From TrEMBL:
This is Soluble quino protein glucose dehydrogenase. It comes from Ascobolus immersus RN42. It comes from the Eukaryota. Residues 464-480 have a biased composition (Gly residues). The keyword Signal applies. SUPFAM superfamilies: Soluble quinoprotein glucose dehydrogenase. Residues 39-459 form the Pyrroloquinoline quinone-dependent pyranose dehydrogenase beta-propeller domain. Residues 1-27 form the signal peptide.
Amino acid sequence: MAIFRTIRYRLPFVISLFALLPSSTYAACGLPYNQTPPDIEDGWIAYPISSNLKYPRHLVLDTEGTILIADRGTGIVALKTKTDKDGCVSEDSRNTLIGDRNLNHGIALSKDGKKLFASSAQEAYVWDYDAATGKVSNKKTVVQGMNGDGHTTRTLFIPDVAPDKLLVSMGSEGNMDMKCLERDGGCAVRIFDIGSIPDSPYEFSKDGEILGWGLRNSVGIGESADGGIWTVENSADNMKRGEFDIHVDNPGEEVNYHGRINDDNNELKGKNYGYPQCFTAWDLEDIPKEQDVLRAATNDPNPGPTDGNFWTLEIGQQFSLQPNRTFNDTTCNKEYIAPRIALESHTAPLDIKFYKPDDCAKSNFGCDFNNTAFITQHGSWNRPDPAGYAVGYIHFTDNGAEPRASVKQSEDAFQAILEPEDEDACPDDCFRPVGIAFDKDGRMFVTSDSTGELVVIERDNGKGKGQSGGGSNSNNGGGDESAAGTVEIGKWFWVPAVVAGVWGGLQGLAGF
């Protein structure tokens, strides 16, 4: 009986030890991931709030805080969120705002919130939109003539400083599209006047003013604090320079600057960014020198450009695939616009959005990330070691005008928040981020198309409430999961030790 008296007397002590466990250990935010959970950097929280969307791409928030998602295969989905007493965000309700399976990627909202724009592979449309009632009406075609195979995403963007302008991006019809040597082809971001939408649709190539061209597939468009327009460019695959295969680590993806759209003296408006002749250097060791390419092509032991000098490449500069005496790396770097930052090859950046809260001190990410550019990397398919599958950021200067890093510092410019636990498992078992949007509280919402998820990313700020990896749900895209989700595994590692220690102490006290 002494044994049981000892256990009885010690039991409150054991219970009190478990009471000391932090509450965040017992309840993490969000749903399980539909794949192996990504690694989350220290100081950040990321968790799914929806896990059974069809194929979510870009997204915006309306004036009521409803998230509007271009969900390929469905149309436009309207998703409302709620926040509980612990600060956890979850899906409150969801409905199909526009049922149209042809709407595959682009979405934008006028600055007054009363016009909703969305795109198919061929056209861009507009509806009257009432955020209070969640209703659309009066559909019109705004831009047409974007037919073509290859890249079928038509990104839409309305700048804050030019709310009467709609930017539309159209990519190439293939990996190496020679039609893009002409200004009236695709491979461009064009500007359309939506201050007064005409009765007849604009023709993409005929009526749109060129913001930038020579762009293979600029899927992401963002606006910095000073009104500058930035795009992220998906560069070419299966690349050779002359006879030399360089496709594994080249070319680099691009962060391109197009100037301030409301600046009448914008010298970058209408400029060519090089595709399909000039590409961005990422791994310099993998790119053969011009003279070696020329020597192999001509059997001339002493080849040289017409000016007698070869260009010495640096990271982020542009190179020619087939350099010759009249068109070479010098041509690329003197006559075309190079990126401001290069990104790792084949990472496939699909969105860029700037964190620009009204009051950074009261916003979730705080002032350390004010004016920072956040970028999604959808991930590679064309290299032996997968790359990308990440959400991260590039710090900009305090006034938001330029990246803090120079192009020569491109290798360290992009800092990941969310990235694969095991890149070798990608793409099949990885989160594949696409679109970015911020809410009024400064929280970031990110879509993952192939996994059907919507994820919220926040700063931890000492709350310790979110998943830092969490659990996984093997049922891709399905299931009515509880918002309680899975606990953060990392916070449980010491619980068995506590239990074992307490049990061992009881054994000693009880004489077991």
